[in-house]
Amino acid sequence: MNETFKNHVYQALNKGLRLDGRKKEDFREITIETGVISTAEGSARVKCGDTEVIAGIKLSLGTPYSDTPNDGVLSTNTELLPLSNPDFEGGPPRIDAIEVARVIDRAIREGKAIDTKKLCVEKGEKVWMVNMDVLPINMDGNLIDVGALACIAALKNTKFPEVVDGKVDYKHLSKKSLPVNALPIEITVVKIKDNFIVDPTQTEEKILDSRLTVGVLEDETICALQKGGDQPLTQKDVDFMVDLAIKKSKELRKLL
Amino acid sequence: MSYKKRLDGRGFDETRPIEAKAGVIHKANGSGYFKIGNTVAYAAVYGPREMFPRSQQNPKKGVLRCNYNMMPFSGAGDRVRPGPSRRSKEISYVTEKALLPVVDLSDYPNAVVDVFIELPQTDAGSRCAGICAASIALADAGIRMRDMIAAVSVGKVDDKLVVDLDYAEEAYEGGDVADIPVAMVPSTGEITLLQGDGLIKKEDLKNALELVKKPLQKIAEIQRKALIESYNLELKGDKK
User: Fold this and answer.
1) Measured between beta carbons, which residues in chain B are less than 8 angstroms from residue A82?
2) Checking CA distances to A136, which of A57, B12, B119, B152 falls within 20 to 30 Å?
3) Residues of A in contact with B75 (CB under 8 A)
4) ipTM of this predicted complex?
5) The CATH number of the domain where B55 resides is what?
Protein backbone atom coordinates (compact mmCIF):
# COMPACT_ATOMS: atom_id res chain seq x y z
CA MET A 1 0.00 0.00 0.00
CA ASN A 2 1.42 3.37 -0.92
CA GLU A 3 2.82 5.70 1.71
CA THR A 4 0.63 8.68 0.81
CA PHE A 5 -2.49 6.63 1.36
CA LYS A 6 -1.16 5.22 4.61
CA ASN A 7 -0.38 8.72 5.87
CA HIS A 8 -3.88 9.79 4.95
CA VAL A 9 -5.30 7.00 7.11
CA TYR A 10 -2.95 7.84 9.99
CA GLN A 11 -3.83 11.52 9.93
CA ALA A 12 -7.54 10.82 9.80
CA LEU A 13 -7.24 8.40 12.72
CA ASN A 14 -5.42 11.04 14.73
CA LYS A 15 -8.53 13.17 14.30
CA GLY A 16 -10.68 10.21 15.34
CA LEU A 17 -11.94 9.48 11.81
CA ARG A 18 -11.95 6.37 9.68
CA LEU A 19 -12.18 5.95 5.93
CA ASP A 20 -15.81 4.82 6.05
CA GLY A 21 -16.84 7.58 8.44
CA ARG A 22 -16.98 5.43 11.56
CA LYS A 23 -15.58 6.40 14.93
CA LYS A 24 -12.67 4.36 16.23
CA GLU A 25 -14.75 2.22 18.58
CA ASP A 26 -17.69 1.64 16.23
CA PHE A 27 -18.62 -1.66 14.62
CA ARG A 28 -20.24 -1.67 11.20
CA GLU A 29 -23.91 -2.64 11.14
CA ILE A 30 -24.32 -6.31 12.05
CA THR A 31 -27.18 -8.60 11.07
CA ILE A 32 -27.54 -12.22 12.18
CA GLU A 33 -29.82 -14.75 10.52
CA THR A 34 -30.00 -18.31 11.79
CA GLY A 35 -31.20 -21.53 10.19
CA VAL A 36 -30.15 -20.36 6.73
CA ILE A 37 -28.79 -23.71 5.47
CA SER A 38 -31.31 -26.54 5.26
CA THR A 39 -28.62 -29.21 4.76
CA ALA A 40 -26.79 -28.28 8.00
CA GLU A 41 -27.91 -29.21 11.52
CA GLY A 42 -27.29 -25.62 12.57
CA SER A 43 -26.33 -22.50 10.65
CA ALA A 44 -26.05 -18.75 10.69
CA ARG A 45 -25.28 -15.95 8.29
CA VAL A 46 -23.68 -12.86 9.79
CA LYS A 47 -23.19 -9.65 7.87
CA CYS A 48 -20.97 -6.94 9.26
CA GLY A 49 -20.65 -4.13 6.73
CA ASP A 50 -19.25 -5.71 3.59
CA THR A 51 -18.08 -8.83 5.41
CA GLU A 52 -20.51 -11.74 5.19
CA VAL A 53 -19.88 -15.13 6.75
CA ILE A 54 -21.84 -18.37 6.75
CA ALA A 55 -21.25 -20.85 9.57
CA GLY A 56 -22.62 -24.37 9.24
CA ILE A 57 -22.65 -27.12 11.85
CA LYS A 58 -22.60 -30.79 10.85
CA LEU A 59 -22.97 -33.48 13.51
CA SER A 60 -21.81 -37.04 13.12
CA LEU A 61 -21.19 -40.06 15.35
CA GLY A 62 -17.59 -41.14 15.85
CA THR A 63 -15.02 -42.55 18.24
CA PRO A 64 -13.76 -40.26 21.03
CA TYR A 65 -10.06 -39.59 21.61
CA SER A 66 -8.62 -42.19 23.96
CA ASP A 67 -7.55 -39.57 26.53
CA THR A 68 -11.07 -38.08 26.70
CA PRO A 69 -13.36 -41.12 26.32
CA ASN A 70 -16.37 -39.26 27.77
CA ASP A 71 -16.18 -36.19 25.59
CA GLY A 72 -17.59 -35.32 22.22
CA VAL A 73 -15.20 -33.94 19.61
CA LEU A 74 -15.21 -30.34 18.37
CA SER A 75 -13.49 -29.19 15.23
CA THR A 76 -13.45 -25.82 13.54
CA ASN A 77 -12.49 -25.19 9.93
CA THR A 78 -12.19 -21.98 7.94
CA GLU A 79 -11.35 -21.51 4.31
CA LEU A 80 -10.61 -18.14 2.81
CA LEU A 81 -12.73 -18.71 -0.26
CA PRO A 82 -11.25 -17.08 -3.37
CA LEU A 83 -14.84 -16.22 -4.26
CA SER A 84 -14.97 -13.73 -1.40
CA ASN A 85 -11.92 -11.59 -2.10
CA PRO A 86 -9.34 -11.06 -4.88
CA ASP A 87 -6.49 -11.56 -2.40
CA PHE A 88 -7.48 -15.15 -1.62
CA GLU A 89 -6.18 -18.05 -3.65
CA GLY A 90 -7.40 -21.61 -3.94
CA GLY A 91 -5.68 -24.62 -2.49
CA PRO A 92 -5.42 -26.07 1.00
CA PRO A 93 -5.86 -23.59 3.88
CA ARG A 94 -2.74 -21.53 4.54
CA ILE A 95 -1.65 -20.03 7.83
CA ASP A 96 -4.03 -17.04 7.70
CA ALA A 97 -7.06 -19.33 7.35
CA ILE A 98 -5.70 -21.72 9.95
CA GLU A 99 -5.25 -18.87 12.41
CA VAL A 100 -8.84 -17.69 11.97
CA ALA A 101 -10.16 -21.22 12.55
CA ARG A 102 -7.93 -21.86 15.54
CA VAL A 103 -8.73 -18.58 17.27
CA ILE A 104 -12.49 -19.12 16.79
CA ASP A 105 -12.04 -22.68 18.03
CA ARG A 106 -10.11 -21.45 21.08
CA ALA A 107 -12.94 -19.25 22.34
CA ILE A 108 -15.53 -21.99 21.84
CA ARG A 109 -13.38 -24.73 23.36
CA GLU A 110 -11.84 -22.84 26.27
CA GLY A 111 -15.00 -20.85 26.94
CA LYS A 112 -16.75 -24.23 27.29
CA ALA A 113 -19.44 -23.11 24.88
CA ILE A 114 -20.44 -26.76 24.37
CA ASP A 115 -20.80 -29.27 27.18
CA THR A 116 -18.77 -32.02 25.54
CA LYS A 117 -19.67 -34.53 28.28
CA LYS A 118 -23.28 -34.38 27.09
CA LEU A 119 -22.10 -35.41 23.61
CA CYS A 120 -21.06 -38.84 24.88
CA VAL A 121 -23.31 -41.63 23.62
CA GLU A 122 -21.28 -44.64 24.79
CA LYS A 123 -18.17 -44.16 26.89
CA GLY A 124 -14.98 -44.70 24.90
CA GLU A 125 -16.96 -45.97 21.92
CA LYS A 126 -19.34 -43.46 20.47
CA VAL A 127 -19.65 -39.69 20.80
CA TRP A 128 -21.08 -36.83 18.77
CA MET A 129 -18.56 -34.98 16.63
CA VAL A 130 -19.35 -31.32 16.07
CA ASN A 131 -17.93 -29.96 12.83
CA MET A 132 -18.02 -26.19 12.56
CA ASP A 133 -17.29 -24.70 9.14
CA VAL A 134 -16.94 -20.95 8.92
CA LEU A 135 -16.79 -19.57 5.39
CA PRO A 136 -16.73 -16.01 4.08
CA ILE A 137 -18.97 -15.11 1.13
CA ASN A 138 -17.87 -11.47 1.19
CA MET A 139 -14.65 -10.54 2.92
CA ASP A 140 -13.87 -7.01 4.00
CA GLY A 141 -11.92 -7.55 7.20
CA ASN A 142 -12.50 -8.72 10.78
CA LEU A 143 -13.07 -12.33 9.85
CA ILE A 144 -12.29 -13.66 13.34
CA ASP A 145 -14.95 -11.60 15.17
CA VAL A 146 -17.60 -12.05 12.51
CA GLY A 147 -16.76 -15.74 12.07
CA ALA A 148 -16.87 -16.42 15.82
CA LEU A 149 -20.22 -14.65 16.08
CA ALA A 150 -21.59 -16.71 13.18
CA CYS A 151 -20.25 -19.89 14.72
CA ILE A 152 -21.84 -19.23 18.11
CA ALA A 153 -25.14 -18.24 16.51
CA ALA A 154 -25.04 -21.46 14.45
CA LEU A 155 -24.26 -23.62 17.51
CA LYS A 156 -27.24 -22.09 19.33
CA ASN A 157 -29.36 -22.97 16.32
CA THR A 158 -28.16 -26.61 16.10
CA LYS A 159 -30.50 -29.57 16.55
CA PHE A 160 -29.40 -33.20 16.81
CA PRO A 161 -30.45 -35.40 13.90
CA GLU A 162 -32.43 -38.53 14.70
CA VAL A 163 -30.47 -41.75 15.18
CA VAL A 164 -31.96 -44.97 13.81
CA ASP A 165 -30.23 -48.28 14.67
CA GLY A 166 -27.02 -46.44 15.55
CA LYS A 167 -26.98 -44.57 12.22
CA VAL A 168 -27.56 -40.86 11.82
CA ASP A 169 -30.69 -39.95 9.87
CA TYR A 170 -29.86 -36.51 8.47
CA LYS A 171 -33.29 -36.16 6.91
CA HIS A 172 -34.95 -35.84 10.29
CA LEU A 173 -33.77 -33.42 12.96
CA SER A 174 -34.93 -34.06 16.52
CA LYS A 175 -36.20 -31.29 18.79
CA LYS A 176 -33.12 -31.68 20.97
CA SER A 177 -30.72 -28.74 20.85
CA LEU A 178 -26.95 -28.92 21.14
CA PRO A 179 -25.96 -28.43 24.82
CA VAL A 180 -24.73 -24.83 24.59
CA ASN A 181 -23.39 -23.69 27.97
CA ALA A 182 -21.75 -20.37 27.30
CA LEU A 183 -21.62 -17.79 24.55
CA PRO A 184 -18.06 -16.56 24.06
CA ILE A 185 -17.76 -13.41 21.96
CA GLU A 186 -14.49 -12.51 20.26
CA ILE A 187 -13.42 -8.93 19.77
CA THR A 188 -10.28 -7.96 17.89
CA VAL A 189 -8.75 -4.63 18.81
CA VAL A 190 -6.38 -3.24 16.22
CA LYS A 191 -3.53 -0.84 16.91
CA ILE A 192 -2.50 1.51 14.12
CA LYS A 193 0.27 3.87 15.29
CA ASP A 194 -1.16 5.19 18.57
CA ASN A 195 -4.79 4.56 17.71
CA PHE A 196 -6.97 1.67 18.76
CA ILE A 197 -9.90 0.64 16.59
CA VAL A 198 -12.35 -2.26 16.46
CA ASP A 199 -13.93 -4.06 13.50
CA PRO A 200 -11.21 -3.24 10.96
CA THR A 201 -11.94 -3.27 7.24
CA GLN A 202 -9.52 -5.11 5.00
CA THR A 203 -7.73 -1.83 4.21
CA GLU A 204 -7.23 -1.15 7.91
CA GLU A 205 -5.99 -4.69 8.47
CA LYS A 206 -3.37 -4.22 5.77
CA ILE A 207 -1.77 -1.32 7.63
CA LEU A 208 -2.22 -2.44 11.22
CA ASP A 209 0.80 -2.55 13.52
CA SER A 210 -0.63 -5.05 15.94
CA ARG A 211 -3.89 -6.63 16.94
CA LEU A 212 -5.25 -8.46 19.93
CA THR A 213 -8.23 -10.80 19.79
CA VAL A 214 -9.96 -11.34 23.12
CA GLY A 215 -12.60 -14.00 23.74
CA VAL A 216 -15.03 -12.78 26.41
CA LEU A 217 -17.71 -14.66 28.37
CA GLU A 218 -20.88 -13.17 29.77
CA ASP A 219 -19.33 -12.52 33.22
CA GLU A 220 -16.38 -10.72 31.57
CA THR A 221 -14.07 -13.70 32.01
CA ILE A 222 -11.49 -13.92 29.24
CA CYS A 223 -11.44 -17.30 27.50
CA ALA A 224 -9.11 -16.76 24.54
CA LEU A 225 -6.31 -14.45 23.46
CA GLN A 226 -4.36 -14.04 20.28
CA LYS A 227 -1.90 -11.31 19.45
CA GLY A 228 -1.11 -10.64 15.83
CA GLY A 229 0.77 -8.08 13.76
CA ASP A 230 4.47 -7.29 13.53
CA GLN A 231 4.75 -4.69 16.29
CA PRO A 232 4.92 -5.33 20.03
CA LEU A 233 2.34 -4.21 22.59
CA THR A 234 3.06 -2.61 25.94
CA GLN A 235 1.36 -3.76 29.12
CA LYS A 236 -0.63 -0.53 29.00
CA ASP A 237 -1.75 -1.30 25.44
CA VAL A 238 -2.92 -4.75 26.48
CA ASP A 239 -4.89 -3.38 29.44
CA PHE A 240 -6.62 -0.85 27.22
CA MET A 241 -7.35 -3.36 24.46
CA VAL A 242 -8.80 -5.92 26.86
CA ASP A 243 -11.05 -3.29 28.47
CA LEU A 244 -12.26 -2.15 25.07
CA ALA A 245 -12.86 -5.74 23.95
CA ILE A 246 -14.94 -6.49 27.06
CA LYS A 247 -16.97 -3.33 26.49
CA LYS A 248 -17.64 -4.14 22.84
CA SER A 249 -18.43 -7.80 23.60
CA LYS A 250 -21.48 -6.65 25.57
CA GLU A 251 -22.84 -4.86 22.50
CA LEU A 252 -22.36 -7.91 20.27
CA ARG A 253 -23.81 -10.27 22.86
CA LYS A 254 -27.10 -8.38 22.70
CA LEU A 255 -27.42 -9.38 19.04
CA LEU A 256 -27.39 -13.11 19.79
CA MET B 1 -45.86 -48.76 -12.66
CA SER B 2 -46.26 -45.21 -13.66
CA TYR B 3 -45.01 -41.90 -12.27
CA LYS B 4 -48.32 -40.03 -12.24
CA LYS B 5 -47.60 -37.08 -10.06
CA ARG B 6 -44.25 -35.52 -9.12
CA LEU B 7 -43.16 -36.05 -5.51
CA ASP B 8 -43.38 -32.32 -4.76
CA GLY B 9 -46.49 -31.76 -6.90
CA ARG B 10 -44.81 -29.78 -9.70
CA GLY B 11 -45.77 -30.04 -13.36
CA PHE B 12 -43.50 -32.38 -15.33
CA ASP B 13 -41.90 -29.53 -17.28
CA GLU B 14 -41.86 -27.16 -14.32
CA THR B 15 -38.70 -26.14 -12.49
CA ARG B 16 -38.56 -25.49 -8.76
CA PRO B 17 -38.96 -21.82 -7.73
CA ILE B 18 -36.01 -19.73 -8.93
CA GLU B 19 -34.41 -16.64 -7.45
CA ALA B 20 -31.50 -14.84 -9.13
CA LYS B 21 -29.40 -11.83 -8.20
CA ALA B 22 -26.36 -10.03 -9.59
CA GLY B 23 -23.68 -8.06 -7.77
CA VAL B 24 -23.82 -9.94 -4.48
CA ILE B 25 -20.06 -10.12 -3.88
CA HIS B 26 -18.68 -6.67 -3.40
CA LYS B 27 -14.95 -7.20 -4.00
CA ALA B 28 -15.49 -9.23 -7.17
CA ASN B 29 -15.48 -7.81 -10.70
CA GLY B 30 -18.83 -9.48 -11.18
CA SER B 31 -21.00 -11.89 -9.24
CA GLY B 32 -24.20 -13.84 -9.34
CA TYR B 33 -26.56 -15.75 -7.07
CA PHE B 34 -28.87 -18.47 -8.31
CA LYS B 35 -31.30 -20.42 -6.16
CA ILE B 36 -33.43 -23.18 -7.59
CA GLY B 37 -35.55 -24.97 -5.00
CA ASN B 38 -33.20 -25.76 -2.14
CA THR B 39 -30.04 -25.59 -4.26
CA VAL B 40 -28.10 -22.35 -3.83
CA ALA B 41 -25.11 -21.19 -5.88
CA TYR B 42 -22.90 -18.13 -5.61
CA ALA B 43 -20.46 -17.23 -8.35
CA ALA B 44 -17.77 -14.56 -8.40
CA VAL B 45 -15.67 -13.44 -11.36
CA TYR B 46 -12.18 -12.03 -10.86
CA GLY B 47 -10.34 -10.72 -13.87
CA PRO B 48 -9.30 -10.45 -16.55
CA ARG B 49 -6.06 -10.55 -14.54
CA GLU B 50 -2.61 -11.93 -15.15
CA MET B 51 -2.57 -15.71 -15.41
CA PHE B 52 -0.53 -17.63 -12.89
CA PRO B 53 1.11 -20.06 -13.33
CA ARG B 54 2.60 -18.36 -16.40
CA SER B 55 2.94 -21.69 -18.19
CA GLN B 56 -0.85 -21.67 -18.58
CA GLN B 57 -0.97 -18.28 -20.27
CA ASN B 58 -2.29 -18.12 -23.81
CA PRO B 59 -0.69 -15.32 -25.87
CA LYS B 60 -3.65 -15.33 -28.28
CA LYS B 61 -6.53 -14.88 -25.86
CA GLY B 62 -7.62 -14.94 -22.26
CA VAL B 63 -8.32 -18.19 -20.44
CA LEU B 64 -11.55 -18.99 -18.61
CA ARG B 65 -10.89 -20.87 -15.38
CA CYS B 66 -13.79 -22.21 -13.33
CA ASN B 67 -13.77 -23.68 -9.87
CA TYR B 68 -16.83 -25.46 -8.47
CA ASN B 69 -16.92 -26.13 -4.74
CA MET B 70 -19.49 -27.55 -2.35
CA MET B 71 -19.32 -26.10 1.15
CA PRO B 72 -18.75 -28.76 3.84
CA PHE B 73 -22.28 -28.40 5.22
CA SER B 74 -24.03 -28.26 1.83
CA GLY B 75 -24.73 -31.96 1.31
CA ALA B 76 -27.89 -33.80 2.29
CA GLY B 77 -26.04 -36.36 4.43
CA ASP B 78 -22.53 -36.45 5.87
CA ARG B 79 -20.22 -33.45 5.93
CA VAL B 80 -18.46 -32.95 2.58
CA ARG B 81 -14.69 -32.97 3.07
CA PRO B 82 -13.28 -29.58 2.07
CA GLY B 83 -10.94 -29.32 -0.88
CA PRO B 84 -11.10 -30.55 -4.46
CA SER B 85 -12.47 -34.00 -5.20
CA ARG B 86 -12.58 -35.93 -8.48
CA ARG B 87 -16.23 -34.95 -8.75
CA SER B 88 -15.67 -31.23 -8.17
CA LYS B 89 -12.76 -31.20 -10.62
CA GLU B 90 -14.85 -32.75 -13.34
CA ILE B 91 -17.71 -30.34 -12.71
CA SER B 92 -15.30 -27.38 -12.82
CA TYR B 93 -14.04 -28.65 -16.15
CA VAL B 94 -17.46 -29.13 -17.77
CA THR B 95 -18.60 -25.78 -16.38
CA GLU B 96 -15.74 -24.10 -18.26
CA LYS B 97 -16.76 -25.88 -21.44
CA ALA B 98 -20.39 -24.92 -20.87
CA LEU B 99 -19.63 -21.21 -20.60
CA LEU B 100 -16.79 -20.85 -23.09
CA PRO B 101 -18.85 -20.85 -26.31
CA VAL B 102 -20.49 -17.52 -25.46
CA VAL B 103 -17.52 -15.80 -23.84
CA ASP B 104 -15.15 -13.70 -25.94
CA LEU B 105 -11.74 -13.36 -24.30
CA SER B 106 -9.81 -12.42 -27.45
CA ASP B 107 -9.07 -8.97 -26.02
CA TYR B 108 -7.19 -10.39 -23.05
CA PRO B 109 -4.06 -12.28 -24.15
CA ASN B 110 -2.11 -13.89 -21.29
CA ALA B 111 -4.89 -13.11 -18.87
CA VAL B 112 -7.24 -15.34 -16.90
CA VAL B 113 -10.85 -14.82 -15.97
CA ASP B 114 -11.42 -16.73 -12.76
CA VAL B 115 -14.91 -17.94 -11.93
CA PHE B 116 -15.41 -19.24 -8.40
CA ILE B 117 -18.62 -21.13 -7.73
CA GLU B 118 -19.63 -21.96 -4.17
CA LEU B 119 -22.61 -23.99 -3.05
CA PRO B 120 -23.74 -23.40 0.52
CA GLN B 121 -26.77 -25.70 0.21
CA THR B 122 -27.68 -28.35 -2.36
CA ASP B 123 -30.67 -30.45 -3.33
CA ALA B 124 -29.50 -31.82 -6.71
CA GLY B 125 -28.95 -29.74 -9.84
CA SER B 126 -25.94 -28.01 -8.32
CA ARG B 127 -23.73 -27.92 -11.43
CA CYS B 128 -26.57 -26.33 -13.41
CA ALA B 129 -27.24 -23.79 -10.65
CA GLY B 130 -23.51 -23.04 -10.61
CA ILE B 131 -23.45 -22.48 -14.37
CA CYS B 132 -26.48 -20.16 -14.16
CA ALA B 133 -24.86 -18.14 -11.37
CA ALA B 134 -21.54 -18.03 -13.26
CA SER B 135 -23.24 -16.77 -16.40
CA ILE B 136 -24.82 -13.90 -14.43
CA ALA B 137 -21.45 -13.17 -12.82
CA LEU B 138 -19.60 -13.04 -16.15
CA ALA B 139 -22.16 -10.63 -17.60
CA ASP B 140 -22.05 -8.57 -14.41
CA ALA B 141 -18.25 -8.38 -14.74
CA GLY B 142 -18.65 -6.85 -18.19
CA ILE B 143 -17.01 -9.74 -20.02
CA ARG B 144 -18.07 -9.68 -23.67
CA MET B 145 -20.67 -12.38 -24.24
CA ARG B 146 -22.75 -13.50 -27.17
CA ASP B 147 -25.65 -14.61 -24.91
CA MET B 148 -26.36 -15.97 -21.44
CA ILE B 149 -25.93 -19.63 -20.65
CA ALA B 150 -28.93 -21.21 -18.99
CA ALA B 151 -28.72 -24.66 -17.44
CA VAL B 152 -31.07 -27.12 -15.82
CA SER B 153 -31.38 -30.86 -15.59
CA VAL B 154 -33.91 -32.90 -17.51
CA GLY B 155 -34.52 -36.60 -17.19
CA LYS B 156 -36.80 -39.49 -16.83
CA VAL B 157 -38.41 -40.77 -13.66
CA ASP B 158 -39.99 -44.15 -14.29
CA ASP B 159 -42.06 -43.53 -17.44
CA LYS B 160 -42.20 -39.72 -17.39
CA LEU B 161 -39.87 -37.06 -18.74
CA VAL B 162 -39.28 -34.39 -16.09
CA VAL B 163 -37.39 -31.12 -15.75
CA ASP B 164 -35.17 -30.14 -12.81
CA LEU B 165 -34.94 -33.30 -10.68
CA ASP B 166 -34.39 -32.88 -6.94
CA TYR B 167 -32.67 -35.43 -4.67
CA ALA B 168 -35.92 -37.18 -3.85
CA GLU B 169 -36.58 -37.77 -7.54
CA GLU B 170 -33.00 -38.82 -8.26
CA ALA B 171 -33.44 -41.41 -5.51
CA TYR B 172 -36.90 -42.54 -6.72
CA GLU B 173 -37.24 -46.27 -6.16
CA GLY B 174 -40.42 -47.03 -8.05
CA GLY B 175 -38.64 -47.22 -11.42
CA ASP B 176 -35.62 -46.22 -13.48
CA VAL B 177 -34.28 -42.69 -13.21
CA ALA B 178 -32.18 -40.81 -15.75
CA ASP B 179 -30.67 -37.43 -14.92
CA ILE B 180 -29.34 -35.26 -17.74
CA PRO B 181 -27.86 -31.84 -16.95
CA VAL B 182 -28.15 -29.53 -19.96
CA ALA B 183 -26.78 -26.05 -20.62
CA MET B 184 -27.87 -24.09 -23.64
CA VAL B 185 -27.31 -20.86 -25.54
CA PRO B 186 -30.92 -19.68 -25.32
CA SER B 187 -30.96 -17.64 -28.53
CA THR B 188 -29.63 -20.41 -30.78
CA GLY B 189 -30.54 -23.62 -28.94
CA GLU B 190 -26.90 -24.77 -29.06
CA ILE B 191 -26.09 -27.25 -26.30
CA THR B 192 -22.93 -26.48 -24.29
CA LEU B 193 -23.25 -29.00 -21.48
CA LEU B 194 -24.65 -32.48 -21.79
CA GLN B 195 -24.10 -35.21 -19.27
CA GLY B 196 -26.22 -38.18 -18.43
CA ASP B 197 -26.66 -40.58 -15.52
CA GLY B 198 -29.05 -43.49 -15.78
CA LEU B 199 -30.83 -45.34 -18.52
CA ILE B 200 -32.76 -43.66 -21.32
CA LYS B 201 -33.84 -44.59 -24.87
CA LYS B 202 -32.71 -42.37 -27.73
CA GLU B 203 -36.29 -41.21 -28.52
CA ASP B 204 -36.72 -40.18 -24.91
CA LEU B 205 -33.41 -38.30 -24.99
CA LYS B 206 -34.57 -36.48 -28.09
CA ASN B 207 -37.86 -35.56 -26.47
CA ALA B 208 -36.15 -34.59 -23.23
CA LEU B 209 -33.89 -32.13 -25.05
CA GLU B 210 -36.99 -30.70 -26.70
CA LEU B 211 -38.85 -30.51 -23.38
CA VAL B 212 -36.05 -28.64 -21.63
CA LYS B 213 -35.93 -25.76 -24.14
CA LYS B 214 -38.83 -23.80 -22.70
CA PRO B 215 -37.69 -23.95 -19.07
CA LEU B 216 -34.22 -22.86 -20.23
CA GLN B 217 -35.70 -19.83 -21.98
CA LYS B 218 -37.49 -18.99 -18.76
CA ILE B 219 -34.25 -19.32 -16.78
CA ALA B 220 -32.41 -17.04 -19.22
CA GLU B 221 -35.17 -14.48 -18.74
CA ILE B 222 -34.73 -14.63 -14.95
CA GLN B 223 -30.96 -14.24 -15.36
CA ARG B 224 -31.36 -11.14 -17.53
CA LYS B 225 -33.88 -9.69 -15.12
CA ALA B 226 -31.43 -10.15 -12.23
CA LEU B 227 -28.78 -8.20 -14.15
CA ILE B 228 -31.15 -5.41 -15.09
CA GLU B 229 -32.37 -5.11 -11.51
CA SER B 230 -28.83 -4.95 -10.21
CA TYR B 231 -27.94 -2.14 -12.60
CA ASN B 232 -31.15 -0.27 -11.86
CA LEU B 233 -30.22 -0.36 -8.20
CA GLU B 234 -26.76 0.84 -9.01
CA LEU B 235 -28.09 3.79 -11.00
CA LYS B 236 -30.31 4.79 -8.12
CA GLY B 237 -27.25 4.60 -5.90
CA ASP B 238 -28.72 2.32 -3.26
CA LYS B 239 -26.80 -0.83 -4.06
CA LYS B 240 -25.73 -3.11 -1.16
Assistant:
1) 44, 46, 67, 114, 116
2) B152
3) 39
4) 0.89
5) 3.30.230.70
